[in-house]
Design a protein that fits this description.
Layout lengths: L4 H16 L30 E8 L11 E7 L11 E6 L5 E4 L2 E9 L2 E9 L4 E7 L2 E10 L10 E10 L5 E9 L4 E4 L1 E9 L4 E9 L4 E8 L2 E8 L11 E6 L4 E6 L4 E4 L2 E9 L2 E9 L4 E7 L2
Parallel strand pairs: 1-7, 8-14, 15-21
Antiparallel strand pairs: 1-4, 2-3, 2-5, 5-6, 8-11, 9-10, 9-12, 12-13, 15-18, 16-17, 16-19, 19-20
Length: 304
């Protein structure tokens, strides 16, 4: 008996140490959805004739579930219910993993994270508990605008549209985002997109193509070949600007670019040759001018 005492003491110390270790809960990886994209995991429970479905979603297959920023929408398949027509919105949820109690039947569930979204069909069976896990296959996109001289652009002056690689019946790209602000991370489904970025409020635009990868942040630098141009109507060179003036700027070919009013309007223009018109007190004055990328200049229109 005395020989076993050290062993027992050591075993007691080891057990005490193990008892003090933190317990880490591990989340099992989500099950892959079946080929028909309909998840049914049977489990019987008395639900008064309804079925119960708990839904969750992750960015990529095998990644951790998304915990915030989600919007779930549940639609009843009216055709399956004999009603015909479009699907009917049943409910909207903003929880990370809502539990839905639904009448038996066929439903379409849409989950959205920003602009990324996914829609799947599920079948609800009476008095049965199911689970459905969605994989968004989505990533992030951030636009970094710069000027032609390499300087960072004023983010407040930049807005951009995002077009998907899909085409409509006229062969035009489908717009996914309109008028987004630079520096903001957009959540999009993985795929190829075209970026049309505008600097200022005129025609200083730039285009770039980007691949958004699932589970990653794609950062795109867009170079704007813009020129900052101020306009001024004067009675003599270097004179004071005349107020109550209406301005229009057009390309030499006649295409209108921008209209504005005021004593000293400022616009960002693409490089090229333009004609500016100033209207004051019923009279019209014109001047041709040319600007280059990265240039900042004052264009005076002198009244004869």
């Amino acid at each position: 008996m005395p020989r076993r005492l050290p062993f027992l003491l050591a075993a007691g110390v080891l057990a005490a140490a193990l008892a003090r270790l933190p317990v880490v809960a591990q989340t099992p990886p989500p099950a892959s959805p079946p080929a028909d994209n309909t998840t049914v995991v049977p489990r019987v429970l008395k639900l008064g004739g309804q079925g119960q479905v708990t839904v969750s979603v992750s960015l990529t297959d095998g990644s951790q579930p998304i915990l915030q920023g989600l919007v779930w929408r549940v639609f009843r398949d009216k055709a399956a219910a004999g009603g015909g027509g479009k699907s009917l919105l049943v409910s909207t949820h903003k929880e990370a993993s809502p539990t839905l109690r639904l009448d038996p039947g066929t439903y379409w569930i849409n989950v959205a994270l920003g602009r990324a979204n996914l829609t799947r069909k599920i079948t609800v069976v009476a008095d049965r508990v199911d689970k459905a896990h969605f994989v968004l296959n989505a990533g992030g996109l951030r636009i970094v605008p710069v000027l032609a001289n390499g300087e960072g652009a004023n983010l407040k002056l930049v807005a951009f549209d995002v077009e998907s690689d899909e085409r409509d019946e006229h062969g035009q790209r489908t717009k996914v985002v309109i008028g987004a602000k630079a520096g903001v991370v957009l959540r999009l489904n993985a795929g190829v997109y075209s970026i049309l970025s505008t600097y200022g409020d005129a025609n200083a635009t730039a285009r770039a193509d980007v691949w958004v990868e699932a589970g990653r942040l794609s950062e795109v630098k867009v170079v704007h070949p813009a020129a900052e141009v101020r306009f001024k109507l004067v009675t003599r060179g270097g004179g004071d600007a005349i107020a109550d003036t209406q301005w229009s700027v057009a390309l030499r070919q006649g295409e209108m670019v921008k209209e504005s009013s005021g004593a000293l309007p400022t616009h960002f223009l693409a490089p090229g040759t333009y004609t500016v018109s100033a209207r004051h007190a019923g009279r019209l004055y014109r001047r041709d001018f040319t600007v280059k990328a990265g240039e900042s200049r004052l264009v005076e229109v002198v009244m004869p």
